[in-house]
């Protein structure tokens, strides 16, 4: 049994993201400080654009975790639309049926992060479980850098399985494309 205080979790749609944008960006800037400083793709302006694009998708949801009024971390994602290009950078051969996105089947988790001083207390797990709690989709997907040991270990311990390597853009790294059955 964890002796850490439980998170207070709030759930938001696109309007909620807009209302909390400053806190979300500040958390991102802290967790990804090195990347923000060195890689234009991680600039706050570019990240803000990606957030707004995610928020415009059907099935978008943001969960935020608080201790008191302090934001500990957040997770967000959206439903893959019919014919989604999510799997178009797949590097491995898999059963094509696994890649058939019909607009109802799969929720994608785009982001999950916990501020460093709050890690290893089960808070990422709480955000993950809250994000997936009342989804209608039958499975979830995410992309993880295979060298991201904490995240990879977390997903494997939470029941995720690797489908194959995915390179979303020609110049991006190859990520592990992961799936979790939601049993809906
Ligand atoms: C990945 C991340 C979200 C995990 O957050 P967290 O709150 O520490 O995770 P939890 O406490 O819920 O840990 C769950 C499990 O993950 C694994 N794990 C987490 N950190 C780990 C580490 N440093 N090394 C090995 N395993 C780790 C463990 O299996 C852990 O369970 P345990 O503590 O009972 O052993 C956090 O490290 C983070 O924000 N990293 C930076 C952002 C990031 O990489 N996000 C994922 C992008 S795909």
TrEMBL record:
One family name in Pfam for this protein: Acetyltransf_1
Domain (N-acetyltransferase) ranges: 5-181
UniProt GO MF annotations: acyltransferase activity, transferring groups other than amino-acyl groups
Domain of life: Bacteria
Protein's name in the database: N-acetyltransferase domain-containing protein
Organism expressing this protein natively: Catellatospora coxensis
């Amino acid at each position: 049994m964890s002796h850490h205080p439980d998170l207070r979790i709030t759930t938001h749609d696109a309007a909620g993201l807009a209302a909390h944008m400053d806190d979300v960006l500040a958390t991102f800037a802290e967790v990804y400080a090195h990347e923000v400083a060195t890689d234009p793709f991680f600039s706050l302006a570019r990240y803000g654009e990606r957030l707004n694009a995610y928020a415009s998708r059907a099935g978008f949801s943001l969960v935020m975790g608080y201790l008191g009024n302090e934001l500990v971390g957040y997770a967000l994602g959206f439903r893959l639309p019919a014919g989604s290009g999510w799997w178009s950078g797949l590097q491995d051969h898999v059963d094509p049926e696994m890649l058939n996105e019909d607009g109802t089947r799969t929720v994608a988790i785009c982001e999950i992060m916990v501020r460093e001083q709050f890690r290893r207390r089960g808070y990422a797990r709480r955000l993950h479980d809250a994000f997936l709690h009342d989804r209608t989709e039958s499975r979830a997907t995410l992309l993880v850098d295979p060298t991201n040991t904490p995240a990879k270990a977390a997903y494997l311990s939470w029941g995720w399985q690797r489908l194959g390597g995915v390179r979303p853009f020609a110049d991006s790294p190859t990520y592990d494309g992961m799936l979790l059955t939601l049993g809906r």
